[in-house]
Amino acid sequence: MSIDLPICKCPKCGKVLNDATVAFGERLDAEPGDSWSICFYCGAIVLFDKQLNTLRLPTPAEWSDVESDPAFFGELQAQQRLVIQFRKAGKAN
Ligand SMILES: [Zn+2]
């Protein structure tokens, strides 16, 4: 599923993202709290804030937390690889 978002920019590449698709796991808006995501343009691993208003890069502590969960981190990395492969294949602008 995807949801509409306020217009926000990827903190890494600066592209405007105005919707989000949950590639795996729970609905993005199912619970309050920052949500991990992948930029569809550059493949950056990013976090939405609690209100889904802004995207930011994870802090070092958050990286440590996510890396301590190999199953979840592995899924994030797998999704990141898919985005990067998709972009390299020239399937989107
Ligand atoms: Zn990006």
Outline the structure in words.
With 93 residues, the chain is an alpha+beta fold. It has one domain. The chain has helices spanning 60-67, 70-88; strands spanning 2-9, 16-21, 35-38, 45-48, 55-56. The strands form two sheets. A three-stranded antiparallel β-sheet has the order 3-4-5. A two-stranded antiparallel sheet has the order 1-2. The chain binds zinc ion. Residues 10, 12-13, 15, 39, 41-42, 44 line the site of zinc ion.
Give the topology.
Layout: E1 2-9, E2 16-21, E3 35-38, E4 45-48, E5 55-56, H1 60-67, H2 70-88
Antiparallel strand pairs: 1-2, 3-4, 4-5
This protein binds zinc ion.
Uncertain runs: 23-31
- Structural domain tally: 1
**Hetero groups bound?**
zinc ion
Task: Sketch the major β-sheet.
Answer: 3 strands, antiparallel
- Strand neighbour order, sheet with most strands: 3-4-5
Structural class: alpha+beta
Helix content: 25-40%
Strand tally is 5
Ends distance: 22 Å
User: H/E series, N to C?
Assistant: EEEEEHH
Shape: globular
Features:
93 residues, alpha+beta, three-stranded antiparallel beta sheet, two-stranded antiparallel sheet, globular, binds zinc ion
Summarize the structure in short:
With 93 residues, the protein is of the alpha+beta class. The chain has helices at 60-67, 70-88; strands at 2-9, 16-21, 35-38, 45-48, 55-56. Bound molecules: zinc ion.
